[in-house]
């Protein structure tokens, strides 16, 4: 894939969203949006402006192998055989020390599937001169036409103390600590569509967990391969200390009610945090292309803002 094609994918439809956010208030936006990473089997990148915390970057991410002993997830979740919502098509959970306690739809009660995180352990990545931290999803969905899944919310909190034994669930999720970034905020809106839990899914990502590489780009490729990487701006963490705990909440499958193929089904999903100073996802190729794309976004958004003020 050329740099120009990445820029093109970002400019449409994300340009309007980013330009509007810059012109009003960068950390918030109100327009509903679907971000599609399930299109042509090639590396795609989307800028998602969180309803709290600013611009994050979602992209296809390929890595292999990603088995349990290699991938080293800090969060594993699955609603099959258990469900915190009363609907097995939807899964939600946040990371804890899996050896002590697990909540919501966490799966695998051991340190291989769930871990606590410290902010200081997260690898920093420079994208267009700005630092980010990164989280990788290995989605495990059925093949063929059942491989889609909706990523409906990510919320990241920090706290001074370990919340593993605090007994926090959906109704008091904000007790995890200080909210640092959220795809959708608040967690629920109290209305039923598109599901009976009233989740706020104002913006969401469509992901194909079995998308096969056919052009050398090594796009997401199913269970056993990393499917998506999420870059969260370090600026969203504000005054977070290196010793503070990071709590990562994930909600998937809510959009199954409008498209049954978007349900969270089959096996469990795993999230990995990039830690340490010497690890670079996919050899740095995504970062290089992404920096060029974000530069173009910033330039065109700035021109649009100047034009609107003229």
Tell me the layout of helices and strands.
Layout: H1 3-24, E1 33-36, E2 45-50, E3 54-60, H2 68-71, E4 75-77, E5 91-94, E6 117-118, E7 125-127, E8 130-138, E9 148-159, E10 178-182, E11 203-208, E12 228-233, E13 245-252, E14 269-273, H3 285-309
Parallel strand pairs: 1-11
Antiparallel strand pairs: 2-3, 3-12, 4-14, 5-13, 6-13, 7-8, 8-12, 8-14, 9-10, 9-11, 9-13
Helix pairs in contact: 1-3
TL;DR of this structure?
The protein has 310 residues and is an alpha+beta fold. The chain has three helices and 14 strands.
Could you list some keywords that capture this structure?
310 residues, alpha+beta, seven-stranded antiparallel sheet, 14 strands, 26% strand, globular, disordered C terminus
Structure characterization notes:
This protein has 310 residues and is an alpha+beta fold. It has helices at residues 3-24, 68-71, 285-309; strands spanning 33-36, 45-50, 54-60, 75-77, 91-94, 117-118, 125-127, 130-138, 148-159, 178-182, 203-208, 228-233, 245-252, 269-273. Strands 1, 5, 6, 9, 10, 11 and 13 form a 7-stranded mixed beta sheet that branches. A hairpin with a 2-residue loop joins strand 7 and strand 8 (130-138). The radius of gyration is 18 Å and the shape is globular. The model is unreliable at 1-31 and 296-308 (pLDDT under 50).
Q: Helicity level, as a percent range?
A: 10-25%
Written as H for each helix and E for each strand, in order along the chain, the element string is HEEEHEEEEEEEEEEEH
Structure classification: alpha+beta
Radius of gyration: 18 Å
- Enumerate the spans where pLDDT stays under 50 for 5 or more consecutive residues: 1-31, 296-308
